[in-house]
Amino acid sequence: MIPVKNSPNCRPWFIFLIFFSLILVNCSQSTEELSKALLPTAVPPPSPANSAPPARVYHMMVYDSTRQVTILFGGSPAVDGVEDSGEDEGVSPYFSDTWEYNGETWRQIDVASSPPGRYGHGMAYDDSRGVVVLYGGIASPTRRYADTWEYNGTTWLLKDNFAQTPGGREFPIMIFDPSQQVTFLLVGGMVDDMWAYDGESWQETPIHVPPPIRSAITARPVFDSTRQVILFHEGNDGGWGDTLELIGNQLEYVATRGDKFARGVFDLAFDKRRGVTVLFGGAVCEWQEAESNFHCDPLNDTWEYDGNVWRLVEVAVPPPARYGHSMVYDAARGVVVLFGGVGSDGHMLNDTWEYNGVSWVER
Would you state the pLDDT for residue 81? Predict the structure, then answer.
């Protein structure tokens, strides 16, 4: 599931991604079937204040600008997912907990209803309606979700009265566009489509996403509020990192082809105060023939993009190297917030870091 270095002794990253996606395409089920299969979801009891969420990977975070909190949902307790043990039939092995972070403490939210446990889902915050929108994700090693949920700060609500939906997706890319007041969903498997959600319906757009962007494993989005444009950075195309912008009905490459910082499973956040996109971490992986597995080297570098070029930022004490983490920009406090992921030697992380444009500080 992780991009790989382009070398004579390793296989192209997209072969593994295609293989994984094909399994899910052949084994996808409807939202109703998956809900029956995996409910009830194992939701831990609310934790005391000041305790961080358990270590996890492939979770999602968004920033609720109305209530000025970071919201975290879901994820996997292991980097390669978790096989169902069969001991607790009908209980998801993935996280289904909801957490909020106000800059001082993490607090688990005791919700009346919740999406079933999952990882590799998409999430975005709809500023116009004041809700978090969640779609899809991985239900089990052979199944993926096709459901839409909204979180209003109190509980999650399942939205299921749609004429059409994007269907089952794993690692879809989601971003809210305030200029059009819709949430866009792109790719998430062996597809090149783009959908728009306005809170009432899902509509497929005429936009087709160019390869190799096929999931949030290799590409991440931000909304550049300074230039009023949706920006995507994809971290691995034969060893190159490319940046694209949504211009009209086309995703167009901008002037960064040739900036070599290839990687996958990184994350981005747009710093509204300084008008730059911030990238941290990710991993570069190689196929190990002897072990028939991938060996991943997590990264801990920080980059910034000002709309023209990417720049490597020298920081005194960066967070430990990682991939599969999540990042958001806390506009009230003017900092990027980072949580979790997988570190060196597969060590699962549950630390929280903040970046103010000069330095990273662990909270």
Answer: 54
For residues 13 and 264, the answer to whether their CB atoms sit within 8 Å is yes
Q: Quick: pLDDT tens for 244-281.
A: 999 888 888 886 655 557 889 999 999 999 999 999 99
What tokens appear for 150 in the block? 């909204």
Residues 269, 276: Cα–Cα separation, whole Å: 9
Backbone angles phi, psi at 14, to 5 degrees: -75, -20
Beta strands in 65-153 (DSSP E): 69-73, 98-101, 106-108, 122-126, 131-135, 138-140, 143-144, 148-151
Q: Specify the 3-state DSSP secondary structure of 167.
A: coil
At 183, list the tokens: 């949430």
253 in Cβ contact with 244 (< 8 Å): yes
Measured CA to CA, the distance from residue 176 to residue 197 in angstroms comes to 9
Q: What does CATH list as the number for 13-362?
A: 2.120.10.80
pLDDT tens digits for range 284-314: 887 888 877 778 899 999 999 999 989 999 9
Q: Which residues of 12-50 are buried (b: 16+ CB within 10 A; e: fewer)?
A: ebbebbeebbeebeeebbebeebbebbeebbbeeeeeee
Please give the radius of gyration of the chain, using alpha carbons only, rounded to the nearest integer. 19
- Encode 140-170: b = buried (16+ Cβ within 10 Å), e = exposed: beebbbbbbbbbeeeebeebeeeeebbbbbb
Please report the pLDDT score of residue 149 as a whole number.
98
Handedness of CA 74, 331, 266, 18 (dihedral sign): positive
Q: pLDDT tens digits for 53-71?
A: 999 999 999 999 999 999 9
